[in-house]
Amino acid sequence: MNLLEEIITFNEKFVEEEEYVRYATDKFPDKKLLILSCMDTRLVELLPKSMNLKNGDVKFVKTAGATVSHPFGSVMRSMLVAVYELKTDEIFVVGHHDCGMAAINADVMIEEMKERDITSETLSTIENSGIDVKKWLRGFEDVSESVKNSVNIIKNHPLMPTGIAVHGLVIAPDTGKLDVIVDGYIDLHK
């Protein structure tokens, strides 16, 4: 059985046995909170548990490195939708120690792309359209600085309303310990 068949088989039983009932909620987050976190597998259950969050409490947006790489990209759009349409009034950017984005080498990744049949012509076409692929793929050196950068992009976005607390945290993926990097309430009272 392949992975798709395994998932569909499980899902049929899940629906038949009405397992979904215990997850019932609506589209509005109970804690009026959005979390931008990394897509790291260690955080899937650890992060919500470490923050005392349950299904229905929060909107999650996940990216590689918990980063906002473009102020008018889909990540920022998702946050604005959450604020304006889904009653979110706080945003937490949660990076983590030992993040794979800290080790990303764009040159190595580009070579891996070529090994998997992405042609130099394709890369040139992308570059010629104005996208610096190496810069776009680049990671970061310091998770705390990366979190601060994403917080700044969010809180200073021209379409983000005043009164939205934007916090920055870093989680330890082995223990769940959270360190506050940016207390978004401080900026609200200035």
From TrEMBL:
Textual note on the cofactor: Binds 1 zinc ion per subunit.
Cofactor: Zn(2+)
A GO molecular-function descriptor: zinc ion binding
Binding-site positions, Zn(2+): 38, 40, 96, 99
EC number(s) stated in the UniProt entry for this protein: 4.2.1.1
InterPro entries named in the record: Carbonic_anhydrase, Carbonic_anhydrase_sf
Reactions catalysed, as given in the entry: hydrogencarbonate + H(+) = CO2 + H2O
CDD domains: beta_CA_cladeD
Keywords on record: Metal-binding, Zinc
SUPFAM superfamilies: beta-carbonic anhydrase, cab
Record-stated family: Belongs to the beta-class carbonic anhydrase family.
UniProt name for this protein: carbonic anhydrase
The organism of origin for this protein: Peribacillus loiseleuriae
